[in-house]
Design brief:
Distance between the termini: 77 Å
CATH superfamily of the largest domain: Transferase(Phosphotransferase) domain 1
Helix content: 40-55%
Number of strands: 10
Number of helices: 18
Largest sheet: 5 strands, antiparallel
CATH architecture of the largest domain: Orthogonal Bundle
Strand order of the largest sheet: 1-2-3-5-4
CATH class of the largest domain: Mainly Alpha
CATH topology of the largest domain: Transferase(Phosphotransferase), domain 1
Number of domains: 3
Shape: elongated
Order of helices and strands: EEEHHEEEHHEEEEHHHHHHHHHHHHHH
Length: about 475
Protein backbone atom coordinates (compact mmCIF):
# COMPACT_ATOMS: atom_id res chain seq x y z
CA UNK A 1 0.00 0.00 0.00
CA UNK A 2 1.24 3.48 -0.84
CA UNK A 3 1.25 5.31 2.51
CA UNK A 4 4.10 7.75 1.90
CA UNK A 5 4.01 10.64 -0.52
CA UNK A 6 7.23 12.22 -1.72
CA UNK A 7 7.08 15.95 -0.99
CA UNK A 8 7.84 16.96 -4.58
CA UNK A 9 5.59 17.74 -7.53
CA UNK A 10 8.16 16.17 -9.86
CA UNK A 11 7.77 12.59 -8.58
CA UNK A 12 4.85 10.28 -7.79
CA UNK A 13 5.41 7.29 -5.52
CA UNK A 14 3.99 4.01 -6.83
CA UNK A 15 4.78 1.30 -4.30
CA UNK A 16 7.20 0.46 -1.53
CA UNK A 17 9.91 -1.93 -2.67
CA UNK A 18 11.68 -2.58 0.61
CA UNK A 19 12.63 -1.47 4.09
CA UNK A 20 16.14 -2.09 5.34
CA UNK A 21 18.14 -1.32 8.45
CA UNK A 22 17.88 2.45 8.11
CA UNK A 23 15.78 3.34 5.07
CA UNK A 24 12.73 2.62 2.96
CA UNK A 25 12.92 2.28 -0.80
CA UNK A 26 10.05 3.20 -3.13
CA UNK A 27 9.37 2.80 -6.80
CA UNK A 28 8.22 6.13 -8.23
CA UNK A 29 7.58 7.92 -11.51
CA UNK A 30 9.13 11.08 -12.87
CA UNK A 31 5.93 12.81 -14.00
CA UNK A 32 7.87 15.03 -16.42
CA UNK A 33 9.69 12.31 -18.35
CA UNK A 34 7.48 9.32 -17.50
CA UNK A 35 10.55 7.35 -16.36
CA UNK A 36 10.56 5.02 -13.39
CA UNK A 37 12.86 6.10 -10.58
CA UNK A 38 13.75 4.97 -7.06
CA UNK A 39 13.15 7.15 -4.02
CA UNK A 40 14.87 6.41 -0.73
CA UNK A 41 14.25 8.01 2.65
CA UNK A 42 15.08 7.21 6.31
CA UNK A 43 12.65 4.87 8.02
CA UNK A 44 9.82 6.86 9.65
CA UNK A 45 10.01 4.89 12.91
CA UNK A 46 13.70 5.75 13.26
CA UNK A 47 13.05 9.38 12.37
CA UNK A 48 10.73 9.52 15.38
CA UNK A 49 13.72 8.83 17.64
CA UNK A 50 14.93 11.66 19.82
CA UNK A 51 18.26 13.41 20.22
CA UNK A 52 21.52 11.85 19.10
CA UNK A 53 20.01 8.78 17.40
CA UNK A 54 17.88 10.84 15.03
CA UNK A 55 20.72 13.25 14.33
CA UNK A 56 23.07 10.37 13.53
CA UNK A 57 20.51 8.80 11.19
CA UNK A 58 20.10 12.04 9.24
CA UNK A 59 23.86 12.53 9.10
CA UNK A 60 24.39 9.01 7.78
CA UNK A 61 21.68 9.48 5.16
CA UNK A 62 23.20 12.80 4.09
CA UNK A 63 26.58 11.12 3.79
CA UNK A 64 25.13 8.41 1.50
CA UNK A 65 23.60 11.09 -0.72
CA UNK A 66 26.93 12.90 -0.96
CA UNK A 67 28.68 9.64 -1.91
CA UNK A 68 26.17 9.04 -4.69
CA UNK A 69 26.86 12.52 -6.04
CA UNK A 70 30.61 11.74 -6.11
CA UNK A 71 30.28 8.42 -7.90
CA UNK A 72 29.77 8.27 -11.64
CA UNK A 73 29.57 4.80 -13.15
CA UNK A 74 26.91 3.07 -15.19
CA UNK A 75 26.85 0.26 -12.58
CA UNK A 76 25.91 2.61 -9.71
CA UNK A 77 22.40 4.12 -9.69
CA UNK A 78 22.76 7.80 -10.59
CA UNK A 79 21.75 10.53 -8.16
CA UNK A 80 18.96 12.67 -9.63
CA UNK A 81 17.48 14.81 -6.92
CA UNK A 82 17.29 15.16 -3.14
CA UNK A 83 15.44 17.40 -0.70
CA UNK A 84 13.47 17.64 2.51
CA UNK A 85 16.49 18.48 4.65
CA UNK A 86 16.74 18.10 7.57
CA UNK A 87 13.33 16.95 8.83
CA UNK A 88 12.12 14.74 5.97
CA UNK A 89 15.11 13.96 3.71
CA UNK A 90 14.79 11.91 0.54
CA UNK A 91 16.88 11.12 -2.51
CA UNK A 92 15.85 10.15 -6.05
CA UNK A 93 18.03 7.72 -8.03
CA UNK A 94 17.93 5.85 -11.31
CA UNK A 95 15.73 2.77 -11.40
CA UNK A 96 17.39 -0.55 -12.29
CA UNK A 97 15.02 -2.71 -14.32
CA UNK A 98 16.08 -6.16 -13.23
CA UNK A 99 16.33 -8.57 -10.31
CA UNK A 100 18.66 -8.91 -7.36
CA UNK A 101 21.32 -11.61 -7.41
CA UNK A 102 19.54 -13.02 -4.35
CA UNK A 103 16.48 -13.69 -6.48
CA UNK A 104 18.58 -14.63 -9.51
CA UNK A 105 20.64 -17.29 -7.74
CA UNK A 106 17.48 -18.55 -6.06
CA UNK A 107 16.01 -19.15 -9.51
CA UNK A 108 19.12 -20.60 -11.19
CA UNK A 109 21.29 -22.10 -8.43
CA UNK A 110 25.00 -22.57 -9.14
CA UNK A 111 26.08 -20.76 -12.30
CA UNK A 112 28.43 -21.80 -15.11
CA UNK A 113 31.95 -20.41 -14.80
CA UNK A 114 31.49 -18.01 -17.72
CA UNK A 115 28.34 -16.52 -16.19
CA UNK A 116 29.95 -16.13 -12.76
CA UNK A 117 32.99 -14.55 -14.40
CA UNK A 118 30.84 -12.03 -16.27
CA UNK A 119 29.04 -11.04 -13.06
CA UNK A 120 32.25 -10.77 -11.06
CA UNK A 121 34.15 -8.76 -13.70
CA UNK A 122 31.22 -6.34 -13.95
CA UNK A 123 31.16 -5.97 -10.15
CA UNK A 124 34.93 -5.45 -9.98
CA UNK A 125 34.75 -2.79 -12.68
CA UNK A 126 32.32 -0.95 -10.39
CA UNK A 127 34.59 -1.39 -7.37
CA UNK A 128 37.41 -0.12 -9.58
CA UNK A 129 35.56 3.18 -9.53
CA UNK A 130 34.74 3.02 -5.81
CA UNK A 131 38.00 1.90 -4.19
CA UNK A 132 40.33 4.52 -5.76
CA UNK A 133 38.09 7.14 -4.15
CA UNK A 134 39.06 5.63 -0.78
CA UNK A 135 35.58 4.19 -0.32
CA UNK A 136 34.74 0.70 0.97
CA UNK A 137 31.19 -0.49 0.28
CA UNK A 138 31.14 -2.88 3.29
CA UNK A 139 27.88 -4.58 2.31
CA UNK A 140 28.60 -6.63 -0.82
CA UNK A 141 25.86 -9.28 -0.90
CA UNK A 142 23.37 -10.65 -3.47
CA UNK A 143 20.46 -8.47 -2.35
CA UNK A 144 22.53 -5.31 -2.96
CA UNK A 145 23.55 -6.37 -6.47
CA UNK A 146 21.08 -6.22 -9.35
CA UNK A 147 21.30 -7.74 -12.81
CA UNK A 148 19.36 -5.76 -15.40
CA UNK A 149 17.46 -7.05 -18.43
CA UNK A 150 20.62 -6.78 -20.56
CA UNK A 151 22.63 -8.85 -18.07
CA UNK A 152 24.66 -5.93 -16.68
CA UNK A 153 25.48 -5.68 -12.96
CA UNK A 154 24.57 -2.75 -10.69
CA UNK A 155 25.80 -2.18 -7.12
CA UNK A 156 23.29 -0.58 -4.75
CA UNK A 157 23.07 0.74 -1.19
CA UNK A 158 26.07 2.77 -0.06
CA UNK A 159 24.38 3.43 3.28
CA UNK A 160 27.15 1.89 5.38
CA UNK A 161 30.06 2.61 3.04
CA UNK A 162 33.30 3.53 4.80
CA UNK A 163 35.17 6.63 3.68
CA UNK A 164 38.91 6.22 4.27
CA UNK A 165 39.47 9.95 3.87
CA UNK A 166 41.01 10.99 7.22
CA UNK A 167 38.77 14.08 7.20
CA UNK A 168 35.57 12.09 6.61
CA UNK A 169 32.90 12.04 9.32
CA UNK A 170 32.83 8.84 11.36
CA UNK A 171 29.35 7.56 12.19
CA UNK A 172 29.19 4.42 14.31
CA UNK A 173 25.57 4.37 15.45
CA UNK A 174 22.94 2.11 13.89
CA UNK A 175 24.87 -1.12 14.09
CA UNK A 176 28.21 -1.86 15.69
CA UNK A 177 29.28 -4.33 12.98
CA UNK A 178 28.18 -3.00 9.57
CA UNK A 179 27.54 -5.72 7.02
CA UNK A 180 25.41 -8.79 6.41
CA UNK A 181 25.68 -12.33 7.83
CA UNK A 182 27.52 -14.72 5.57
CA UNK A 183 29.47 -12.05 3.69
CA UNK A 184 31.22 -10.03 6.40
CA UNK A 185 34.99 -10.01 6.56
CA UNK A 186 36.79 -11.01 9.78
CA UNK A 187 37.94 -7.43 10.36
CA UNK A 188 34.35 -6.17 10.00
CA UNK A 189 33.18 -8.80 12.49
CA UNK A 190 35.87 -7.62 14.89
CA UNK A 191 34.41 -4.14 14.44
CA UNK A 192 37.79 -2.67 13.57
CA UNK A 193 37.61 1.10 13.37
CA UNK A 194 39.12 1.32 9.90
CA UNK A 195 38.60 -1.19 7.12
CA UNK A 196 40.18 -1.31 3.69
CA UNK A 197 39.11 -2.40 0.23
CA UNK A 198 40.22 -5.90 1.28
CA UNK A 199 36.96 -6.17 3.26
CA UNK A 200 35.03 -5.87 -0.01
CA UNK A 201 37.33 -8.48 -1.59
CA UNK A 202 36.43 -10.93 1.20
CA UNK A 203 32.72 -10.30 0.60
CA UNK A 204 33.27 -10.77 -3.14
CA UNK A 205 34.99 -14.08 -2.36
CA UNK A 206 31.91 -15.23 -0.45
CA UNK A 207 29.74 -14.07 -3.35
CA UNK A 208 31.84 -15.85 -5.98
CA UNK A 209 31.78 -19.01 -3.86
CA UNK A 210 27.97 -18.72 -3.78
CA UNK A 211 27.69 -18.09 -7.53
CA UNK A 212 29.76 -21.17 -8.40
CA UNK A 213 28.47 -23.63 -5.78
CA UNK A 214 25.02 -22.37 -4.84
CA UNK A 215 26.22 -22.27 -1.22
CA UNK A 216 28.09 -19.92 1.08
CA UNK A 217 31.53 -20.92 2.39
CA UNK A 218 30.04 -21.24 5.89
CA UNK A 219 26.41 -22.02 6.79
CA UNK A 220 24.43 -19.26 8.47
CA UNK A 221 24.08 -20.76 11.94
CA UNK A 222 25.28 -20.08 15.49
CA UNK A 223 28.89 -20.84 14.44
CA UNK A 224 28.87 -18.33 11.58
CA UNK A 225 30.93 -15.56 13.16
CA UNK A 226 33.41 -18.01 14.69
CA UNK A 227 33.89 -19.69 11.32
CA UNK A 228 34.57 -16.44 9.52
CA UNK A 229 36.98 -15.36 12.24
CA UNK A 230 38.86 -18.59 12.94
CA UNK A 231 38.14 -21.44 10.50
CA UNK A 232 39.96 -21.79 7.18
CA UNK A 233 37.34 -21.45 4.45
CA UNK A 234 36.71 -24.56 2.34
CA UNK A 235 37.87 -24.53 -1.24
CA UNK A 236 35.31 -24.63 -4.01
CA UNK A 237 36.83 -27.89 -5.23
CA UNK A 238 36.05 -29.43 -1.84
CA UNK A 239 32.34 -28.98 -2.61
CA UNK A 240 32.65 -31.35 -5.58
CA UNK A 241 32.29 -28.45 -8.01
CA UNK A 242 34.55 -28.53 -11.06
CA UNK A 243 36.19 -25.13 -11.50
CA UNK A 244 39.53 -24.14 -13.04
CA UNK A 245 42.41 -24.24 -10.58
CA UNK A 246 43.02 -20.53 -11.06
CA UNK A 247 39.54 -19.71 -9.76
CA UNK A 248 39.75 -22.28 -6.95
CA UNK A 249 43.00 -20.69 -5.77
CA UNK A 250 41.73 -17.16 -6.31
CA UNK A 251 38.67 -17.65 -4.10
CA UNK A 252 40.83 -19.25 -1.42
CA UNK A 253 43.02 -16.14 -1.49
CA UNK A 254 40.02 -13.81 -1.35
CA UNK A 255 38.83 -15.62 1.79
CA UNK A 256 42.10 -15.34 3.68
CA UNK A 257 41.62 -14.09 7.26
CA UNK A 258 44.44 -11.55 7.01
CA UNK A 259 43.36 -8.60 4.81
CA UNK A 260 46.95 -8.18 3.62
CA UNK A 261 46.90 -11.72 2.25
CA UNK A 262 43.96 -11.12 -0.09
CA UNK A 263 44.54 -10.24 -3.73
CA UNK A 264 43.69 -6.69 -4.82
CA UNK A 265 40.58 -6.09 -6.91
CA UNK A 266 42.73 -5.63 -10.02
CA UNK A 267 44.19 -9.13 -9.60
CA UNK A 268 40.76 -10.70 -9.05
CA UNK A 269 39.45 -8.97 -12.15
CA UNK A 270 42.49 -10.07 -14.16
CA UNK A 271 41.99 -13.73 -13.26
CA UNK A 272 38.23 -13.71 -13.86
CA UNK A 273 38.58 -11.96 -17.24
CA UNK A 274 40.38 -15.04 -18.54
CA UNK A 275 37.11 -16.99 -18.15
CA UNK A 276 34.78 -14.58 -19.91
CA UNK A 277 33.01 -16.13 -22.88
CA UNK A 278 34.48 -15.80 -26.34
CA UNK A 279 32.76 -13.31 -28.66
CA UNK A 280 30.31 -15.15 -30.86
CA UNK A 281 30.20 -18.24 -28.61
CA UNK A 282 27.03 -20.01 -27.48
CA UNK A 283 25.34 -19.09 -24.19
CA UNK A 284 26.82 -20.94 -21.19
CA UNK A 285 23.27 -21.98 -20.22
CA UNK A 286 20.20 -21.34 -22.37
CA UNK A 287 18.00 -21.17 -19.27
CA UNK A 288 19.77 -18.10 -17.82
CA UNK A 289 17.42 -15.14 -17.99
CA UNK A 290 18.85 -12.58 -18.14
CA UNK A 291 22.15 -13.93 -19.44
CA UNK A 292 25.08 -11.98 -17.88
CA UNK A 293 27.35 -13.06 -20.75
CA UNK A 294 25.13 -11.93 -23.62
CA UNK A 295 26.57 -8.48 -24.21
CA UNK A 296 30.15 -9.77 -23.85
CA UNK A 297 29.57 -12.60 -26.31
CA UNK A 298 28.24 -10.10 -28.84
CA UNK A 299 30.52 -7.18 -28.02
CA UNK A 300 33.31 -8.09 -30.45
CA UNK A 301 31.44 -9.90 -33.21
CA UNK A 302 32.76 -7.42 -35.76
CA UNK A 303 36.41 -8.06 -34.78
CA UNK A 304 36.75 -11.87 -34.81
CA UNK A 305 40.53 -11.58 -35.22
CA UNK A 306 40.76 -11.10 -31.45
CA UNK A 307 39.60 -14.66 -30.88
CA UNK A 308 42.23 -17.38 -30.94
CA UNK A 309 41.55 -19.76 -33.87
CA UNK A 310 40.24 -23.09 -32.71
CA UNK A 311 39.84 -21.89 -29.12
CA UNK A 312 37.06 -23.15 -26.90
CA UNK A 313 36.54 -23.22 -23.15
CA UNK A 314 36.13 -26.99 -23.22
CA UNK A 315 39.33 -27.50 -25.23
CA UNK A 316 41.37 -25.29 -22.92
CA UNK A 317 41.02 -27.75 -20.06
CA UNK A 318 41.37 -31.06 -21.89
CA UNK A 319 43.79 -33.39 -20.14
CA UNK A 320 46.79 -34.65 -22.13
CA UNK A 321 48.04 -38.21 -21.84
CA UNK A 322 50.29 -39.20 -18.95
CA UNK A 323 53.55 -39.13 -20.93
CA UNK A 324 52.68 -35.79 -22.52
CA UNK A 325 51.77 -34.32 -19.13
CA UNK A 326 55.07 -35.44 -17.61
CA UNK A 327 56.93 -33.82 -20.50
CA UNK A 328 54.96 -30.59 -19.98
CA UNK A 329 55.96 -30.58 -16.31
CA UNK A 330 59.62 -31.10 -17.22
CA UNK A 331 59.61 -28.26 -19.77
CA UNK A 332 57.78 -25.90 -17.40
CA UNK A 333 60.23 -26.71 -14.59
CA UNK A 334 63.13 -25.83 -16.87
CA UNK A 335 61.54 -22.46 -17.59
CA UNK A 336 60.94 -21.73 -13.90
CA UNK A 337 64.49 -22.75 -12.96
CA UNK A 338 65.81 -20.38 -15.62
CA UNK A 339 63.64 -17.57 -14.28
CA UNK A 340 61.67 -17.36 -17.53
CA UNK A 341 58.02 -18.20 -16.97
CA UNK A 342 56.96 -18.49 -20.58
CA UNK A 343 54.80 -20.59 -22.85
CA UNK A 344 55.44 -23.96 -21.18
CA UNK A 345 54.31 -22.69 -17.78
CA UNK A 346 51.13 -21.27 -19.34
CA UNK A 347 50.42 -24.52 -21.16
CA UNK A 348 50.90 -26.55 -17.99
CA UNK A 349 48.67 -24.24 -15.97
CA UNK A 350 45.95 -24.53 -18.62
CA UNK A 351 45.67 -28.33 -18.29
CA UNK A 352 46.40 -28.66 -14.58
CA UNK A 353 42.76 -28.55 -13.49
CA UNK A 354 41.77 -31.37 -15.83
CA UNK A 355 44.75 -33.47 -14.73
CA UNK A 356 43.95 -32.91 -11.07
CA UNK A 357 40.32 -33.84 -11.66
CA UNK A 358 41.32 -37.04 -13.49
CA UNK A 359 44.18 -38.20 -11.25
CA UNK A 360 43.62 -36.44 -7.92
CA UNK A 361 45.70 -34.27 -5.58
CA UNK A 362 47.67 -37.29 -4.34
CA UNK A 363 49.04 -38.07 -7.81
CA UNK A 364 52.79 -37.48 -8.03
CA UNK A 365 52.71 -35.82 -11.47
CA UNK A 366 49.86 -33.54 -10.43
CA UNK A 367 51.70 -32.53 -7.25
CA UNK A 368 54.88 -31.78 -9.22
CA UNK A 369 52.92 -29.70 -11.69
CA UNK A 370 51.18 -27.74 -8.96
CA UNK A 371 54.44 -26.92 -7.17
CA UNK A 372 55.97 -25.89 -10.49
CA UNK A 373 53.08 -23.52 -11.21
CA UNK A 374 53.27 -22.18 -7.66
CA UNK A 375 57.00 -21.51 -8.05
CA UNK A 376 56.22 -19.64 -11.27
CA UNK A 377 53.61 -17.49 -9.51
CA UNK A 378 56.01 -16.80 -6.66
CA UNK A 379 58.72 -15.81 -9.11
CA UNK A 380 56.30 -13.32 -10.68
CA UNK A 381 55.44 -11.86 -7.28
CA UNK A 382 51.94 -13.38 -7.17
CA UNK A 383 52.47 -14.89 -3.73
CA UNK A 384 48.72 -15.11 -2.93
CA UNK A 385 48.12 -17.41 -5.91
CA UNK A 386 51.33 -19.32 -5.16
CA UNK A 387 50.31 -19.82 -1.54
CA UNK A 388 47.06 -21.45 -2.63
CA UNK A 389 48.87 -23.89 -4.93
CA UNK A 390 51.41 -24.85 -2.26
CA UNK A 391 48.65 -25.27 0.32
CA UNK A 392 46.66 -27.53 -2.03
CA UNK A 393 49.65 -29.89 -2.36
CA UNK A 394 50.21 -29.98 1.40
CA UNK A 395 46.55 -30.48 2.29
CA UNK A 396 46.04 -33.01 -0.50
CA UNK A 397 48.93 -35.18 0.75
CA UNK A 398 48.81 -35.27 4.57
CA UNK A 399 50.64 -38.63 4.60
CA UNK A 400 52.74 -38.72 1.43
CA UNK A 401 53.67 -42.22 0.34
CA UNK A 402 57.06 -42.74 -1.25
CA UNK A 403 60.22 -40.69 -1.07
CA UNK A 404 59.54 -38.78 -4.29
CA UNK A 405 56.11 -37.57 -3.18
CA UNK A 406 57.49 -36.70 0.24
CA UNK A 407 60.12 -34.54 -1.42
CA UNK A 408 57.44 -32.70 -3.43
CA UNK A 409 55.43 -32.01 -0.26
CA UNK A 410 58.55 -30.67 1.51
CA UNK A 411 59.13 -28.43 -1.50
CA UNK A 412 55.55 -27.15 -1.28
CA UNK A 413 55.91 -26.52 2.45
CA UNK A 414 59.05 -24.43 1.98
CA UNK A 415 57.32 -22.55 -0.83
CA UNK A 416 54.38 -21.83 1.47
CA UNK A 417 56.83 -20.44 4.04
CA UNK A 418 58.16 -17.99 1.45
CA UNK A 419 54.59 -16.83 0.81
CA UNK A 420 53.91 -16.40 4.53
CA UNK A 421 57.01 -14.26 4.87
CA UNK A 422 55.86 -12.15 1.92
CA UNK A 423 52.56 -11.66 3.78
CA UNK A 424 54.46 -10.48 6.90
CA UNK A 425 53.31 -13.57 8.81
CA UNK A 426 56.79 -14.29 10.14
CA UNK A 427 55.82 -16.28 13.24
CA UNK A 428 53.57 -18.62 11.25
CA UNK A 429 56.24 -18.91 8.57
CA UNK A 430 58.94 -19.76 11.10
CA UNK A 431 56.82 -22.49 12.66
CA UNK A 432 56.11 -24.15 9.30
CA UNK A 433 59.79 -23.84 8.32
CA UNK A 434 60.90 -25.41 11.64
CA UNK A 435 58.41 -28.28 11.40
CA UNK A 436 59.35 -28.98 7.79
CA UNK A 437 63.07 -28.80 8.54
CA UNK A 438 62.73 -31.31 11.38
CA UNK A 439 60.70 -33.70 9.21
CA UNK A 440 63.24 -33.36 6.41
CA UNK A 441 66.04 -34.28 8.82
CA UNK A 442 64.17 -37.39 9.93
CA UNK A 443 63.57 -38.52 6.35
CA UNK A 444 65.87 -40.34 3.98
CA UNK A 445 65.77 -37.47 1.48
CA UNK A 446 69.08 -35.85 0.59
CA UNK A 447 68.20 -33.17 -1.91
CA UNK A 448 70.54 -30.27 -2.60
CA UNK A 449 67.67 -28.21 -3.96
CA UNK A 450 65.58 -28.67 -0.81
CA UNK A 451 68.56 -27.93 1.40
CA UNK A 452 69.30 -24.78 -0.57
CA UNK A 453 65.67 -23.65 -0.29
CA UNK A 454 65.66 -24.38 3.43
CA UNK A 455 68.83 -22.35 3.98
CA UNK A 456 67.62 -19.49 1.80
CA UNK A 457 64.49 -19.19 3.96
CA UNK A 458 66.59 -19.53 7.12
CA UNK A 459 68.58 -16.48 6.07
CA UNK A 460 65.38 -14.54 5.53
CA UNK A 461 64.02 -15.56 8.92
CA UNK A 462 67.26 -14.49 10.58
CA UNK A 463 66.93 -11.05 9.03
CA UNK A 464 63.54 -10.54 10.71
CA UNK A 465 64.63 -11.56 14.23
CA UNK A 466 64.56 -15.36 14.33
CA UNK A 467 68.33 -15.87 14.29
CA UNK A 468 68.65 -17.83 17.55
CA UNK A 469 65.60 -19.99 16.94
CA UNK A 470 66.69 -20.79 13.39
CA UNK A 471 70.13 -21.76 14.63
CA UNK A 472 68.66 -24.08 17.29
CA UNK A 473 66.50 -25.88 14.74
CA UNK A 474 69.41 -26.38 12.36
CA UNK A 475 71.61 -27.73 15.14
CA UNK A 476 69.07 -30.19 16.57
Amino acid sequence: MNNWVIPSDRYRTIERRGSGGMAEVWLAEDVVTGEKVVVKHPRPDLMRSDGADRAALIKRFAREVELLKRLNHRGIPRWRHDGGWPNNPWVVMDYVDGVSLHEYTGNHGALPVAAAAAIMVDLLEILGKVHPRRLVHRDIKPSNIYIDRQGRIHLLDFGIAFDADPHATRITQWGSTPGSPGYMSPEALRNEERVTAAADIYSCGCLLFKLLTGQLPFPIDYNLNHNHLEVVAPRISERDVAVPAEIDDLVAGMLEKNPLSRPPASRVEQVMRAFLPIPGSAPPDKLLDPDPTEYRRGALKETPARAVPGWSVRRRFERPGRAKFQEMVRQARQEVSAGDNGVHVKELRAVLTAARKAWGHADLDVAKAQVCCADAELGDGNWVAASGDYRAVIMGNPRPSGTEMQEVVFDAAFGRVECLLAEDREAEGFQLWADTTRELKRSDIRSRRLTARRDYIAAGLSEVGFTDRVKRVLEE
